Amino acid sequence: MSLGTKKRAQTRLAYMLVLPATLLILGIYILPILTVFGISFTDYSLVSNYYEFVGLENYRHMLADEAFGNAIVNTLIYASLFLPSSFITSLFLAIAIQERKQFRSILEVLYFLPVTSTLAAMALVWAALMDSNQGVINHWAGAVGLGPFNWLGSETMVLFSMALISLWSVIGFNMVLFLAGLTAIPSSLYEAAAIDGADHPVDRFFRVTWPMLGPTSMFVAVTSSITAFKLFDTVAILTQGGPNRSSEVFLYLTFLEGFEYFNMGYSAALSLVFLGIIFLFALVQALFVDRNVQY
């Protein structure tokens, strides 16, 4: 067998090995996105077999829709509460656990347990904990002279409550990522920094730890941002967008339009805008952070 024939045979084999995964990606990701893209230009409804092409009408309606603007604002408020707290708290816990010599493995497991829990089921537990009359959290708050708070029934508190539940569910995952990044930092860098006079923990953090955690920090920031915009489970189970639509976030509005009001065309347009927002937000964040990352 000549060298050229052998190379062509290897190329065909490579394509055959890649083909199943390619078809799977096409069937699970690409084709559904293309289908949603096509539906977004129609007035397709679940209660009618007849639909017609309406062009950009769904997108024009979106710009004038008060519910769309409300959902965007609610999502941004929630993200501004969730993102900084999830990043900072996870990093603090990772540093604190890494410094411990005893019970480190036990602490890692305890903090990671919420990640393994079903959020839909745990949301019901949080509903009991945050009950305005008999909730344990209000009982503790009253013991120190605070509250009671209407965690899920107040327009000013409900998004904060959603952020608190989401923080509990994701903090262990981010902490493990930061622990992996901290473990990969060579001890020789800390020794060199100490020789240069950076022997205080704060100096060590800003001169060595933080710069070397650049790739991990970028990954945690991007994944946490995507998680923030994907808020749906807790809203659907605990508040259904209330009170007075104050917790009606973007993804929940998309669900309502499609499966409650049966406006699948408009819901498809909202889904595409949702994907576009996440993509642009993650792209800008990655590009911004990547400029300050040391690999």
TrEMBL record:
It is found in: Cell membrane. InterPro entries: ABC_transporter_permease, MetI-like, MetI-like_sf. The chain crosses the membrane at residues 12-41, 76-97, 109-129, 157-180, 212-232, 266-289. Coiled coil: none annotated. GO terms for biological process: transmembrane transport. It comes from the Bacteria. GO terms for cellular component: plasma membrane. Residues 72-285 form the ABC transmembrane type-1 domain. Keywords: Cell membrane, Membrane, Transmembrane, Transmembrane helix, Transport. It is a multi-pass membrane protein. Gene3D superfamilies: MetI-like. SUPFAM superfamilies: MetI-like (SSF161098). Signal peptide: none annotated. Its main location: membrane. Belongs to the binding-protein-dependent transport system permease family. This is ABC transporter permease subunit. It comes from Parasedimentitalea maritima. The lineage of its organism: Bacteria, Pseudomonadati, Pseudomonadota, Alphaproteobacteria, Rhodobacterales.
